[in-house]
Structure formats: structure tokens, C-alpha cells
Write a structure and sequence with these properties.
alpha/beta; 615 residues; 5-stranded mixed β-sheet; elongated; 26 helices
């Protein structure tokens, strides 16, 4: 049976199989310019011409490039054109070419208008202004300027840019989504990342949770806003962590890659059993919590002796007496203008603002004579304090010490700070406090310029003991809030070429100590060290010493303050105002465009959009 069936089966592997005839190559017909007399032009390319009818626009295949087929189409479909002259069909050909150029020009103009719409939307978001400003102010102003500087034709082109309120909103959402996807790709490609988080209340009494991230990308460390979400009810530890965990799950971010978390000392954040930090550390075994240095500095400077606290209370009452009434405020401003004072208004005091006390007290001290005169004219009992030299001396000391504390606070602020930089500043201030205490006990006050001027004119004032006690108290508080020096055992990260593991306390296992010795004696790396910043250098070293580099990068990734969150909340306050208190859907998108250093990929976004000009 098998032998019978074999003759009906074709075996391609048999040697005696004869190959069939090869397929004939396809013949490509050429377009003849004389075909225009039949009403046809070349609608294809030079390599593959096709016949296109000038009347109906029908595109025929290359095989139809035969006079007989072209004439058949003209006779059957357009009998009224039979017998028309060649000049008639050439005019039709010119009209068709003009239509194609108009379509291409319109398409190019629409794409330019679309891109301009995105560019304007980005600037609107970065300025934190209302979305309607684009159509109500920017476009009319641009048209007026263009009409005067360029001409009416160019001005009319600007009117095709779509800039309505809804359009700007959609553009902002599109760009924010693109930036977020770029950010998530960067974070996922980074070996580790660190977080900074804080919560606050906006103008509509909504609880907002802000999270920033620091990650490694392209041989550098970058800071960026991760997300901003509104908490449904209260800012409890459960709600805050649930919000974060949902975002991480939605975007497939791994908790295990988190090496650091920075926050303030609020109970919801630092609860021992169910705090946000505790829940994060449970899921991220390599993460370490950092209590914000700015908050710690503010808490350390908060406590004062009863005498100095009384001076502070009198100052606040004086400011409130003058500023609480519009009449008092205007009269005081007129008084200051009359005596050519440098300032005409006092500043309100706020407990939550880091620099408030120093700025408020300095302004009050500068206007102390004007304040004294005004209070006397108003017969206010607070006037007696501003004629008391002891009170003025105490006020001068508070101005001096809080100005110094403000300088420390400002230095600790800023982007891209690391533990070594802020630890240097804090340790230096602690040593200054010890030095100032010693000098005060020796009756030397030259480190406090305002107080020193008062004592020169009124040497009978006895304030040295009060100042010495406050400085000692301040020093104790700094030791309490900054108990240990985080630089100990890690100074090899700051300068690996000056640290000798055999002589210095280096917190490294023996195998990494050997790698550190190799780094410290590498002259090539020494040249790179002089050119690169700290983080970039250790990322560069990772190719040759991966484990030693990874240990340094983990430490440098960790945030030291919540400065980015605090500055972002200031942006929220200017974006979500009383007139825009229902701004919710696009708030996070607006913040991302305003705060993120990542630019949107406009060309890729436009390739997925259909350009439509404004009507």
C-alpha cells in the first residue's frame, strides 16, 4: 500500500525531483507624458509610476499604463471630456498640483499650530496661572505684537493655534503623562532610589500628600516629584501609606529598591508600630529613615528662657496691635514715610515658617524708634517696653541669635544636598555655640553685633548671664536633636584618596577595605576625582569597583531634608488659589510640569495626535 501511495506524494528532498519553471519577473511600465491627452498623470513615484485620473482622481495600477486602457476609462467614465484639447488637461494637471501643495502646506501649518499649543500650555503650567490666560491674554498679545512687528499675514497664522481652556488642560495632562512615564522608566532602571515625603493642607482644606524621589540615571543622581495625591479623609499613617502603596502597585515600582526615606517628626510619619516610616521600612529592608534636618534645627531653636520668651511675646503683641487694624497700619506706614525709614511695615509672625522669628524681630528692631513713638501716640501700654534699655538689649540679642540660626537654616535648604554637607554645617554650628558660650562667660559680645552696639552705649546693662544661659540651653538642644555625627566611618566617601583604612575608622568589611586601598592609590581615578562631583565620581567607579561604589551611592541617594516637599507646597499655594479651589484633576499634572526637570517628548506625542487648527 505504501508503495502505491508513494507515487502520489511529492518529496522535495529527493535528488531526482526536477525544479519547476521560475516565476517571470514583474514588468514595470513607464509613464509617458503624452498620457495627459487621455486625462491621466503620474500619481505614483518615478520608480513605480501609476495612472491618476485628472477628473475623478482614481488611481490605477502600473499595469494600466497602456493607451488603450486609459482611453477606455475616459470614454466610459467621462464621455463629456472626449475630444478636449491637451491644454485643457494640462490646466487640470496644474490645478491638481496646486491642491497637493495646499494640502501639504495646511498639514505642515496644523502641525506647527499643534506644537505651539503644547509649548504655550507648558509655559502656562510652569507659571502656575489659570489656563484661560492663554486664550484671553497670551494669544491676543502675541497677535498684536506679530501684527506690528511682522505683518497681518503672520498675525492671522497665530489665530490657528488652539488655546482654549479645555485644550490647555488636555495638553498639560498629555505632557504630564509623558513626563511621568519617562520618570518611571528611569526609576526602574536605577539600582536604588530614595524618597522624601510630607503632607499638608491646601486652600480648600484638602489633605495633600507629596512624594519626591532621588534616583540614578545617566551617571548622575536626579531629584524629581514622584506624585501628589489628595487624601480622602484624614492624614493618618494608614491613609498616607495606602496612597503610596497604591501608586507603587499601579506603576510596578519595587519597595525593595528603596534605600532611604526622609520626613518630618509627625506622629503619623514616625509612629513606632503603624507609622508610615515603619511600614515602609518593613517592605524595604535596606532603607533608613532620616529626620529632616530643617525641622530638627527649628525644634532645637524653639525653646527659650522665660525672660526671652516674654520679650518675644511683647514683640508679637506689638506687631498685632499695629497690623490688626487697617487704620493703625496706614498711620504707621505714613509715620515711617515721614521720617524716611527704610521700611514702612512690620511683618507678621508665624510659628510654622522657619525664618519667621529672625525676620520679624529684625524688622521690629530696625523700626523700634518709630514703633515707640506710634505706641506712645496711641497710648498703648506696650510703649513702655520700647523705652526700656534692658528690653531693647534683649531684643537686640534675639535678633542676633535668630539671624545666625536663619543663616544655618538657609544653608541647609536647597537641592542635591547630601548627608556630609548638612552634617558639616550642623557640627560647625554646634562648635560655634560652645565658643560663643565661652566668650559670653568672659563678657565678650562682639559675635552679636546689635547687642554689642547697645552695650557700648549702655555698659550698665547686665545681660551676659542671660545670654550665656540661653546659649548653653541652645547647645543642649542641638545635642539632643543631633546626637550623633553621621559622617563617622563614612568619610572615605568624601575623599577616598586621603583616608587610610589601617589608620582611620572606616566602617567597611575587609574585602571592601582592600578595594578602597586600590581606589586610593589609583592615579587615573585621582584625575577623575578632581573633575567630577561626588555622586558622579562614585557612579563612574562602579564599573571597576561595583560593591564599594554601591555602598557610597546608597548613602548619597538619601535625602537630608524635606525642602523639596516644602517648596512644592508653596507652588501648590500659588497654583490652587481661592479662585481656583476646585482644581483637582490637573493639579498633579500642573505640578509635574512646573517642578520636574524632565522635558516632555513633544515630537513623539505629536506623532500620535491628529493636528487640527483652531477655528
Amino acid at each position: 500500500m505504501a508503495q502505491v501511495m508513494d507515487k502520489f506524494l511529492k518529496r522535495t528532498s529527493d535528488d531526482n525531483v526536477v525544479a519547476g519553471p521560475s516565476k517571470k519577473p514583474k514588468i514595470m511600465r513607464k509613464y509617458n507624458p503624452d498620457f495627459v491627452k487621455y486625462g491621466f498623470v503620474n500619481g505614483g513615484s518615478v520608480a513605480e509610476p501609476k495612472a491618476q485620473c485628472l477628473e475623478c482622481g482614481l488611481m490605477l495600477s502600473n499595469e494600466a499604463l497602456k493607451p488603450s486602457k486609459l482611453k477606455r476609462h475616459l470614454d466610459a467614465k467621462h464621455p463629456s471630456l472626449v475630444g478636449k484639447s491637451v491644454e485643457f488637461f494640462k490646466r487640470k494637471q496644474d490645478e491638481l498640483h496646486m491642491q497637493k501643495r495646499c494640502v501639504l502646506s495646511l498639514n505642515s501649518s496644523s502641525k506647527s499650530a499643534l506644537k505651539a499649543s503644547y509649548l504655550v500650555a507648558r509655559r502656562v503650567a510652569q507659571s502656575n496661572k489659570s489656563f484661560t490666560i492663554a486664550e484671553e491674554l497670551l494669544l491676543p498679545a502675541a497677535v498684536d505684537m506679530c501684527r506690528e512687528m511682522v505683518g497681518e499675514v503672520a498675525a492671522k497664522k497665530l489665530l490657528s493655534i488652539p488655546l482654549s481652556n479645555d485644550t490647555i488642560s488636555r495638553r498639560i495632562l498629555d505632557m504630564a503623562e509623558d513626563i511621568q512615564q519617562q520618570l518611571l522608566c528611569r526609576i526602574k532602571s536605577s539600582p536604588f532610589y530614595a524618597l522624601q515625603l510630607d503632607e499638608s493642607t491646601d486652600v480648600s482644606s484638602a489633605q495633600m500628600l507629596l512624594v519626591f524621589v532621588r534616583y540614578q540615571w545617566e551617571s548622575k543622581l536626579h531629584d524629581d516629584i514622584l506624585f501628589c495625591r489628595e487624601l480622602p479623609t484624614r492624614a493618618t499613617a494608614h491613609e498616607c501609606f495606602r496612597c503610596m502603596d497604591e501608586y507603587f502597585s499601579e506603576n510596578e515600582l519595587e519597595w525593595q529598591k528603596c534605600v532611604g526615606v526622609c520626613s518630618d517628626g509627625a506622629a503619623s510619619m514616625t509612629g513606632r508600630h503603624n507609622g508610615v516610616i515603619k511600614q515602609i521600612l518593613d517592605r524595604a529592608p535596606e532603607a533608613e529613615w532620616t529626620h529632616c534636618f530643617l525641622h530638627r534645627e527649628s525644634l532645637a531653636a524653639k525653646k527659650m528662657s522665660p525672660e526671652l520668651n516674654e520679650v518675644m511675646n511683647v514683640c508679637v503683641k506689638t506687631i498685632n496691635f499695629i497690623k490688626k487694624s487697617a487704620v493703625n497700619s496706614r498711620c504707621f506706614a505714613r509715620l515711617c514715610e515721614g521720617v524716611d525709614a527704610e521700611h514702612v511695615q512690620l511683618l507678621y509672625h508665624s510659628e510654622v515658617r522657619w525664618l519667621s522669628r529672625g525676620l520679624v524681630l529684625n524688622r521690629l528692631y530696625e523700626l523700634r524708634n518709630e514703633v515707640s513713638y506710634f505706641l506712645s501716640e496711641e497710648e498703648c501700654p506696650l510703649a513702655q517696653h520700647f523705652t526700656d534699655t534692658n528690653f531693647i538689649a534683649k531684643l537686640a540679642y534675639l535678633c542676633d541669635i535668630f539671624s545666625l540660626l536663619n543663616q544655618l537654616n538657609i544653608v541647609l535648604q536647597g537641592r542635591n544636598s547630601n548627608i556630609f554637607f548638612v552634617a558639616d554645617k550642623v557640627q560647625a554650628f554646634k562648635k560655634k555655640l560652645s565658643l560663643w558660650t565661652k566668650r559670653t562667660q568672659e563678657k565678650r559680645m562682639d559675635m552679636f553685633p546689635l547687642l554689642s552696639d547697645i552695650l557700648e552705649t549702655s555698659p550698665e546693662i547686665l545681660i551676659c548671664d542671660l545670654v550665656s544661659h540661653h546659649l548653653s540651653q541652645l547647645s543642649e538642644k542641638f545635642e539632643e536633636y543631633f546626637p550623633k555625627d553621621l559622617r563617622e566611618g563614612n568619610m572615605w566617601m568624601v575623599d577616598p584618596f586621603s583616608v587610610d583604612p589601617s589608620k582611620n575608622d572606616v566602617a567597611l568589611p575587609s574585602d571592601l577595605e582592600s578595594q578602597l586601598l586600590d581606589v586610593s592609590t589609583d592615579s587615573t581615578l585621582k584625575i577623575q576625582w578632581d573633575k567630577l562631583d561626588l555622586a558622579t565620581f562614585w557612579i563612574h567607579v562602579s564599573k571597576e569597583y561595583p560593591f564599594l561604589s554601591l555602598r557610597a551611592i546608597k548613602q548619597l541617594l538619601r535625602f537630608t531634608t524635606t525642602y523639596l516637599c516644602e517648596s512644592a507646597f508653596s507652588t501648590v499655594a500659588t497654583t490652587k488659589t481661592k479662585s481656583r479651589n476646585r482644581l483637582r484633576t490637573t493639579l498633579e499634572a500642573t505640578l509635574r510640569l512646573s517642578l520636574s526637570p524632565i522635558p516632555p517628548q513633544l515630537d513623539q506625542m505629536m506623532s500620535r495626535k491628529q493636528a487640527q487648527a483652531s477655528h
